[in-house]
Amino acid sequence: MSEHIANLLTFLGEANTPFHAVDAMRRRLEAANFMKWQPGSPTESGKGYFYTRNDSSLIAFRAGAQSPIPQSLRLVGAHTDSPNLAVKPIPVKQRSGLVQLGVDVYGGALLNPWFDRDLSMAGRISFVDADGKMASALIDVQRPVAVIPSLAIHLDREANQNRSVNPQKDILPIVAMIDADSAFDFPAFLAAQYAAQYPGVGEIRVLDYEMSLYDTQAPALVGIDSRFIASARLDNLLSCYAGLAALIGSDGRHWNLLVCNDHEEVGSASAVGAQGPMLLDVIESLSGGGDDGRRLRAEALMLSVDNAHAVHPNFSDKHDDSHGPELNRGPVIKINRNQRYATSGEGAAMLKLLAERCEVPVQSFVMRSDLGCGSTIGPITASETGIATIDLGVPTLAMHSVRELAGADDIAHLHQLLTGFYNRVV
What we know:
The protein has helices spanning 3-14, 18-31, 68-71, 186-197, 234-249, 278-287, 290-299, 345-358, 377-385, 409-422, and strands at residues 35-36, 48-53, 57-62, 73-79, 84-95, 98-106, 119-129, 134-140, 174-177, 204-215, 220-222, 228-231, 255-261, 301-305, 308-309, 332-334, 363-365, 388-393, 395-397, 404-407. It is α/β, with parallel strands linked by helices. A nine-stranded mixed beta sheet has the order 1-2-3-13-4-14-18-16-17, with helices on both faces.
């Protein structure tokens, strides 16, 4: 197993929520001597810096040898969030002798694969401590505490022919038996988890939380020849990891930036999403704003890296017959003339030349003309900032499932391409 594959699997196992993804990236940046930074703070040539908001979005950059204005800026963008089941504010339901939790579906989740999985939960809690001060902390239960059992085939004879999932009624996870002596107290459960995870900090009272369920099956190499990666949240933590590794490993001579936004799966319209001001605030701070800021954005170039749809061998007719990206055949240039992707012909040409010089194979994806096309942070970032943007991503199967599949070779392909982009191979 290559070092990049091993490191990616470790990262995926840590990053069970956007909060934990940002925390995992922060720790890796600090280990590489990147320093915490705020817009308006000074920078020093050759040094690395990072900035977070809401604990769920992160921007990291290296300061080049000169001002970024004449040198230009290279950006890689990705997103930290993935479709999941989020615990509701008043979640507890007690019936048939069992305790269940009400959940909201975050993003466009494929729901059927969530049944019959060993589920845990993680997220951020906000609480008041013994001194009356409000604070927040990340928690991760890290063991199976929930399950959503399927209805037996004997009670639903049509399940294999025509099964739909009602998100209000059908996907409530079971977490405990009803205790005859007391009702299940979910905030108290979170407080106990906090005490176990942070021993010696004293009692707290949980005021609110942002908790999500996740599958406890570990990320893994699969296949007879171990050529595939199976994991939750490959969309889009794979891109976050590749961008992070490329930034840390870049030669340090240029102004390079990585932006990993939250909330892409629900449209990016938030204070920390791609449609929010976070990236613009950083660029304005680095450039000094005004005409210099406009010049920097006009000359900058961004790769928006988000997973692409690999052709499924059982459903190959879902792809245009000339645009069916395959696993382990290289990153995919994503094109849509209606601007659901931001790639222009000039941008695609530049990326092809970059791939040639990096000795990386690339593929092209266009949606079938009779099917709607999804979108990503590329067009949003381009329209918000005016930065020329190219959309690409690693081909993936089972996108938005509880467990997705990508090609192991494509991790090296993507890392090599992003490193060459940062190091100005083209």
